[in-house]
Design brief:
This protein has about 180 residues and is mainly β. The chain is built from two helices and ten strands, in the order ααββββββββββ.
């Protein structure tokens, strides 16, 4: 029986036919307004569970990130979005990159594509929908982030590229995900 069915059964009939029924009507209205939410499911946010610092606005899907998944106009794709700024950073300065993707278990691993692109932590445990990493870049050629989702035993799952790291004479910035 769903919550709505229970409220309907409790509130059926004339609510004023017996003493105390007005209170039941108020209770039914409150239950209908706040008590019939679905439980946390696979797409539900797990605040702080998979990030080193709890995030204030947890995404419930990859589309909630400021760089949603590129599906090429179709229904396919990995379903991985990213949150990051495209502002310019001096070499040695850090910025955060958040992977927005439903990961039911296991862990998410992240690494720079070259030694001068350092990502910390290197791994964050699932389950969760937001995985926040810190990126620090030293002088060197442009590169990017490489990510991997592993299962509960640490066995490889899917691998994919994250945002590109673009460098210039004075620093670096994050750009669109590499193909």
């Amino acid at each position: 029986m769903t919550c709505i069915d229970a409220v309907a059964k409790l509130c059926e009939g004339d609510p004023m036919s017996r003493p105390g029924r007005p209170l039941v009507v108020v209770a039914c209205a409150l239950v209908a307004l706040v008590g019939c939410q679905e439980p946390d499911g696979p797409g539900a946010a797990t605040p702080g569970a998979s990030t080193p610092d709890a995030t204030t606005a947890a995404a419930t899907s990859a589309d909630d990130c400021n760089h949603p998944p590129d599906t090429g106009g179709g229904d396919g794709g990995l379903g991985a979005g990213f949150d990051y700024t495209e502002e310019h950073h001096d070499f040695g300065d850090s910025a955060t990159v958040t992977l927005c993707m439903t990961v039911p278990g296991g862990a998410v691993r992240a690494a720079g594509s070259a030694a001068h692109v350092v990502v910390t932590p290197q791994s964050l445990p699932g389950p969760g929908t937001r995985f926040t990493f810190t990126v620090t870049v030293s002088p060197g050629p442009s590169g990017g982030l490489d990510l991997e989702v592993v299962d509960d035993d640490g066995d490889p799952g899917i691998t994919f590229h994250g945002p590109a790291v673009q460098t210039d004479d004075s620093g670096w910035y994050l750009g669109a995900a590499r193909g």
